[in-house]
Amino acid sequence: MRSYQLRRLTNKPILQTRDVKPTIDGFKVLGAFNPAACLFNGEVILLLRVAEAPTAEKGFIIIPLIEEKDGVPTLTLKRFTEPSEPYDPRVITLNGKVYLTSLSHLRLARSRDGVHFAIDDEPFLFPARMDESFGIEDARITFLEGKYWITYTAVSEHGPGVGLAVTTDFKTVERVGMILPPPNKDVALFPQKINEKYMLLHRPMVSDIGKPSVWLAESEDGIHWGNHRFLFGGRGQSSVDPATDPFAWEGGKIGAGPEPILTNEGWLVCYHGADATHAYSLAVALLDKNDPSNVLDRSDTPLLTPELSWEREGFFPNVVFSNGWIQWPDGSDKAGQIWVYYGAADSGVGLAELVTEQPSNKEPYQV
């Protein structure tokens, strides 16, 4: 595999939490991050994950979620006394039940230059099913057979599963439903059939045995998936000392990012790794173009780590996480360039370019 690097195109976030308006009166946006990305009608489309929660009341936690009322999934608020002990800002156990402290949806943003975005005021996809009752998170977009397939993490009290929706115009969207049951996430569809089969990458979640890892699956119709195979996992251990464990950066968690890109060498896959402190980094792997179950190569060191203040500080600190990239088409002034959109500290969006040579002295974009 060629030697890849991720070069930041700007030292500032291109989108921040404050750029996004709340959907619901009385709510505030806690984070806008981890966008899916694609090209559509000459524009860059992002599907941001937007996490919202009711405005805080002193001494109380208000949990937003979807509950069935008269058979209809309905937005509901649950009010609890705030625990006296410190708690995770994202997940909390109250009265013996686990809740998310915010409700996420997908929000559309558009740009002609890929840097400056106009963000819709209304959700593109909002939780509307009971298997989405805790929110919709971290989408991926794949253009396949004339339509845009959107996979996303659908979270409910039963855990995170994988939902699928499709659109042709980014105005109307059709929910197909859950294609992989809990616990699973990080699904990236390949942009073409391979050996007459639809294929995807996914990440089953493990409990007492095993570690998080990337798996491969195939399908005849793009909805029902089988022939699940382990592809690759984190090579590190639960060590926090890189001096004794050079793969500590992916020893805690691992998962696929955006849809694979076909190159002359094979399928290029962006993935994230997390260490024992929950710091997230980005890397790449290369799969055989005719048999993607064959891993040809992987990064030995991360290509991007949280280094800038806005990548290290935020709603969930020390995170760079990508589930969206684009390859600029022939005929554009950026032809062939691969731009990687990444979530930073669950609080904003950064932009980097995947390059195969030493970074140039080109001035970064000013945003």
> Which stretches of 5+ consecutive residues score pLDDT under 50?
none
Task: Provide the CATH architecture.
Answer: 5 Propeller
Structural class: mainly beta
How is the CATH topology named? Tachylectin-2, Chain A
The largest sheet, given as strand count, sense and whether it forms a barrel, is: 5 strands, antiparallel
CATH superfamily annotation: Glycosyl hydrolase domain, family 43
- Net shape: globular
**Portion in strands:** over 45%
Helix content: under 10%
Give the CATH class. Answer: Mainly Beta
How far apart the termini lie comes to 33 Å
Using DSSP, what is the number of strands?
A: 26
Oligomer: single chain
Mean pLDDT: 94
Topology pattern, helix = H, strand = E: EEEEEEEEEEEEEEEEEEEEEEEHEEE
Radius of gyration: 20 Å
Q: How many distinct domains?
A: 1
Count of DSSP H/I helices: 1
Task: Name its key features.
Tachylectin-2, Chain A; mainly beta; five-stranded antiparallel sheet; 1 helix; single chain; 367 residues
Description:
The chain is mostly beta strands and 367 residues long. It has one domain: Glycosyl hydrolase domain, family 43 (Tachylectin-2, Chain A, 5 Propeller). The chain has 1 helix and 26 strands. The protein has one helix at 309-312; strands spanning 5-8, 15-16, 27-40, 43-54, 60-69, 72-81, 91-94, 97-100, 103-111, 118-119, 135-144, 147-156, 159-167, 174-180, 184-189, 198-204, 213-219, 225-233, 253-256, 261-262, 267-274, 280-287, 295-298, 320-327, 338-344, 348-355. The chain is globular. The model has no long low-confidence stretch (mean pLDDT 94).
